[in-house]
Amino acid sequence: MPIRDEKVFSDEEWIAAFSLILPPDRAREEGLGFNPMPDLTGFETATGAELAAAPACGPRSYSGDLLDLLSLVSDSCAERAWRLMKISPEEGAVRRDAIRLRVEELDRYRQEHGPD
């Protein structure tokens, strides 16, 4: 059966993504809290019968902002995020640059005004 449980992004990758926008203790808490269950994958090659027997109705849905944030963690994360968003590497690179600017703005704001 092609449908299987596996984590698309590891706990460490989620923690790394959240650490870009949160203090370390909160990043760990949010990262682990966001990624407790595996994702169901393999829907793209499953037969109708396999889909009917699947324990869920489809793969987890991620927002574009979270996937953009994950794209900053590593090139591997970026590739997986763009695949989930069904965008080209060129489109992904534009989105990655945009989220990088937003994170840098947040960092500058925190340095000028404090962490909260």
Automatic annotation (TrEMBL):
This is Uncharacterized protein. The lineage of its organism: Bacteria, Pseudomonadati, Gemmatimonadota, Longimicrobiia, Longimicrobiales.
